[in-house]
Amino acid sequence: MRSFLCCVVAAVTCFSMPSIAISSDVPKVGDTAPEFEMQGSDGKTYKAKDFVGKKAVIIAWFPRAFTGGCTKECKSMKESGDMLKKYDVAYFTASTDPVEKNAEFAKSLELDYPILSDPKGKNAEMFGVLSSDRSKAGRTTFIIGKDGKVLAVESKVNTETHGKELAELLEKLGVAKLPVK
C-alpha cells in the first residue's frame, strides 16, 4: 500500500508541474523580443538593448555543440556569411552549452560569428525554446527587427541550408542592406 501511495503522489506531482516550454510561449511575429543577455564564444556579452534602434538581430537556437545537425547549421551560417553581412544585422547561433564548450565549438569550425551561451537556460526559456527537462534548447531561429519586435520565427530548419535561407528571408522581410563598399 505504501508504494502505491508513493506512486500516486509522484504521478500527481509530475502531472501538476507546469510545462517549462510550450509552443504558445514562443514569441510571435510582432511581439517584443525577449530582453536577452548572453556571453558569446568571443568573450563579449550581448544584450538585446544593445541592438534596439541600431540593427536587426538573428538568434538561431540549436540543441548541442559538437553534434551532427548543430555542426551543419553553424557551418551553413558561416558559409553564408557573405550573404548575411550584406544586411544591417547581427547574427548568432545560441545554445544552453557552457561558454567554454561553445568557444571550443566555434574555434573548431573557424566561425566568423559568435555562438551565444545560456547554460542556465534563462534566455532559452524566455524565447520559449527550452526543453521540458531544461537540458537543451530546441532548434528555432528568431529574426528581430531594429525596433526590437520579432520579424520571423523559423522552427523548421534545414541545417545544411539555413544560412542561405536566412539571407533570403532578410530580403523578403525588407531588412535594410548595408551600403556597398
Spell out the blueprint of helices and strands.
Blueprint: H1 2-16, E1 37-40, E2 45-47, E3 56-61, H2 68-79, H3 81-84, E4 89-95, H4 99-109, E5 115-117, H5 122-126, E6 140-144, E7 150-154, H6 162-173
How much is the radius of gyration in Å?
18 Å
**Tally of alpha and pi helices:** 6
Helix content: 25-40%
Please tell me the total number of domains: 1
Regions with little confidence, pLDDT below 50 for 5+ residues: 1-23
Mean pLDDT, to the nearest integer, reads 87
Annotation, overall tally of beta strands = 7
- Identify the CATH architecture: 3-Layer(aba) Sandwich
What's the CATH H-level homologous superfamily? Answer: Glutaredoxin
Label the structural class: alpha/beta
Which H/E pattern describes the elements?
HEEEHHEHEHEEH
Q: What gross morphology would you assign?
A: globular
CATH topology: Glutaredoxin
Distance between the termini: 77 Å
Enumerate the strands of the largest sheet in spatial order, edge to edge or round the barrel.
2-1-5-4-3-6-7
Description of the structure:
It is a single chain. By secondary structure, the chain is α/β, with parallel strands linked by helices. The protein has one domain: Glutaredoxin. It is 33% helix and 18% strand. The protein has helices at residues 2-16, 68-79, 81-84, 99-109, 122-126, 162-173, and strands at 37-40, 45-47, 56-61, 89-95, 115-117, 140-144, 150-154. It has a seven-stranded mixed sheet with strand order 2-1-5-4-3-6-7. Strand 1 and strand 2 (45-47) form a beta hairpin. The longest helix has 15 residues, at 2-16.
